[in-house]
Write a structure and sequence with these properties.
Length: 363
């Protein structure tokens, strides 16, 4: 039966998630491990999201709102767009797959950065389309080089801004210059999963570019700053005509009722978002100081994680595991010698610092 499987599916890589806390605790006999590997919100979901979730549980015998109507209306109010310009998905991952299914055919091209979100090449390859990867420049998307790789066969170009796993972002002037080079037959997917953490003042105004007529999809998620990663809910904003086509591919009831309710509750909790930003900003400074103390180079971040060079990443990673601290080695992203460390609560950051000092000294 394996002969029935298309070659591009046979060679499709499987996404490997971060090591679960429970597995580390059981393997190393640690009573309480710390997970700093998946860029989750260490504060958890907002109280308003939890209250909405509890209220919605009484109706789980009903099918969810098939079009996420109320969530789309609320998002439309917030972003100043029409509700018809928004599509809600089972996390940004589903939306990326839907975009690929809608606009890519076998033999056509999807462009992405080499060290970026691993789902981009997976989505392209799963359709039998051609993957076109472009190296980063100074750990950041090289938009000029990406524009140079556009051909008549190019259909989608993915940009993670800020980028995962490097935490870097491109500025407004660079993005605007790039968009002038993108021909009408290419759709730009601007994945802004970490948008709410950005501190740089010249961050691109993606929704304005969309209003100006560019063929652009802007993706956002509730998995990061809103702390709803376990419920899987994300959304995209684009031209209504193009969104309608993606909606035709979307499966019915793709976003469960609990996720929709919690997302609506989270949107009304600005205090939680503000507190999360503050915790992240302080944690970022703490990690910078730690790495400087140990003489480790790192990449300044616009997200809620930091990429740090330790050279012997497998040894350091395993040593941290034995201390009950989970981070993410980056060799699978084409960044050997690097670890990605999510910014946690002050106590979690301290635990990581203590473990890293010990492991670094031993190695």
């Amino acid at each position: 039966m394996t002969d029935w499987v298309a070659p591009h599916i046979k060679s499709l890589p499987v996404y490997v998630p971060g090591k679960p806390i429970e597995e580390v605790e059981a393997e190393f006999g640690i009573p309480e491990a710390v997970k700093l590997a998946s860029n989750e919100n260490p504060l958890g979901p907002s109280p308003k999201a939890l209250a909405a979730l509890e209220k919605a549980m009484a109706q789980v015998h009903r099918y969810p709102d098939g079009g996420s109507v109320y969530l789309r209306r609320r998002l439309a109010e917030i972003h100043g767009v029409a509700a018809e310009q928004i599509l809600v998905g089972n996390g940004s991952n589903e939306i990326l797959d839907l975009i690929a299914k809608t606009f890519l055919r076998p033999g056509e091209e999807g462009i992405y950065a080499e060290q970026a979100f691993v789902v981009y090449p997976m989505s392209v390859q799963s359709l039998g389309a051609v993957k076109v990867s472009v190296p980063l420049k100074n750990f950041c998307h090289d938009l000029e080089a990406m524009a140079d790789r556009i051909t008549p066969k190019t259909r989608i170009l993915f940009i993670a801004n800020p980028n995962n796993p490097t935490g870097t972002s491109v500025g407004a002037r660079e993005m605007e210059r790039f968009l002038t080079r993108v021909p009408p037959h290419v759709l730009v997917v601007c994945d802004e999963a970490y948008f709410e953490y950005v501190e740089r003042p010249d961050f691109p105004r993606s929704l304005e570019y969309l209003a100006q007529g560019h063929n652009l999809f802007v993706l956002r998620t509730f998995s990061k700053i809103y702390g709803l990663a376990g419920l899987r809910v994300g959304y995209m904003i684009g031209k209504q005509e193009l969104v309608n086509y993606v909606n035709q591919v979307r499966e019915p009831f793709n976003v469960n009722s609990l996720a929709q309710a919690a997302a609506l509750g989270a949107l009304d909790d600005r205090e939680h978002v503000t507190r999360t930003r503050e915790v992240n900003a302080k944690g970022k400074k703490f990690l910078y100081a730690l790495f400087q103390e140990l003489g480790l180079s790192f990449v300044p971040t616009e997200a809620n994680f930091v990429l740090v060079r330790v050279d012997r990443e497998e040894e350091i990673y395993e040593g941290l595991l034995r201390e009950g601290v989970i981070v993410r080695p980056m060799i699978g992203w084409g960044l050997p010698g690097y670890l990605r460390v999510s910014i946690g609560l002050p106590s979690e950051n301290e635990r990581f610092a203590h473990a890293l000092r010990k492991v670094w000294k031993e190695n």
